[in-house]
Design goal:
Layout (H helix, E strand, L loop, with lengths): L6 H10 L12 E2 L2 H10 L7 E5 L5 H7 L4 E6 L5 H7 L6 E5 L7 H9 L4 E6 L5 H10 L4 E9 H8 L9 H9 E9 L4 E2 L6 E8 L10 H13 L5 H8 L6 H10 L13 H10 L1
Parallel strand pairs: 2-3, 2-5, 3-4, 5-6
Antiparallel strand pairs: 1-8, 6-9, 7-9
Length: about 280
């Protein structure tokens, strides 16, 4: 079989099955073997791994993972790709393809059935439009993943890894860094996809932390504070917290409390570290 990264072979394959790209599903297939190697290396895939792949497409990344000897379960939403995957992955007994929507499937049951609740890695070339909901589902649910390695829109990856006092830093940065340690593997130009997207991508690995980055009395309360301080970025911390009504304190009391925590009430949300956000969450 010709490599799935060959544009000529890929076009012939898709034509043979009468497949047409779906804009609504954000389908862009990878046609660069070097990028595949970067993903495999970034995810540190070995023969000992169990891997959950989201959106295998025609199986380009799937086959690269399978060649490492890992056990792969690939979840594909587009029914039209299933017969193509049956052909392209037929040589790999260590791959199982499941038709379904990753946002609707019972992930706990899927992991129990396929990985026996053991550790697994998530690897994916995610459609841009649905990146954040998928990532957040894995972060918020108590699942036994050890890392998430994804190829996503460059700006979203930069937001995930952003540090305080930068324009990219926001609630997504805090959520990702609360649960994981993000590490950007590299930039991916639009030209390595078919069809070409209008923006560049990045490969990022999120290594799951053994425990959250900061100690909080309540994660629900913590993320209420996070949502409040980033809701209106141009407003001061005091004003955003007061407007969110997440405390019984009046504005004056809130100001005194923030001062007692050595946090200036006039600061803005994007300047606050996870430690400072946890301090506020645990105190008000």
């Amino acid at each position: 079989m010709y490599p799935l990264t060959s544009p000529k072979y890929l076009k012939e394959l898709l034509s043979r099955y009468g497949f047409h790209f779906s804009k609504s599903l954000g389908q862009n297939f990878l046609i660069d073997g070097n990028i595949l190697e970067k993903i495999i290396k970034g995810a540190t895939i070995s023969s000992h791994d169990k891997v959950l792949e989201i959106g295998p497409g025609v199986g380009t990344l799937t086959s690269a993972i399978a060649k490492q000897g890992a056990e792969v379960v690939a979840v594909e939403l587009d029914r039209e790709l299933l017969p193509i995957l049956e052909e392209t992955l037929e040589e790999f007994p260590n791959v199982r393809v499941i038709h379904g929507d990753i946002l609707k499937l019972d992930l706990n049951q899927l992991i129990k059935d396929n990985f026996h609740d053991g550790p697994f890695k998530v690897v994916a070339n995610l459609p841009y439009y649905i990146t954040t909901p998928i990532i957040m589902r894995f972060l918020e649910e108590e699942l036994s993943y050890t890392s998430i390695t994804v190829m996503i829109q460059k700006e979203v990856a930069q937001r995930m890894a952003a540090q305080p006092d930068s324009k990219e830093y926001g609630s997504l940065s805090v959520a990702v860094q609360f649960y994981t340690n993000p590490r950007i593997i590299g930039k991916v130009p639009a030209g390595v996809f078919m069809p070409q997207p209008k923006v560049d991508s990045m490969i990022i690995t999120l290594e799951k932390r053994n425990k959250p980055a900061v100690e909080v009395n309540s994660s629900t309360r913590f993320f209420q504070v996070v949502k409040a301080v980033f809701a209106q970025r141009r407003k001061t911390l005091l004003n955003t917290l007061h407007a969110a009504e997440i405390s019984d304190m009046n504005k004056s009391e809130l100001s005194i409390k923030l001062d007692s925590l050595n946090i200036n009430p006039q600061r803005r949300g994007e300047t606050l570290s996870l430690e400072e956000l946890a301090l506020i969450s645990n105190s008000i």
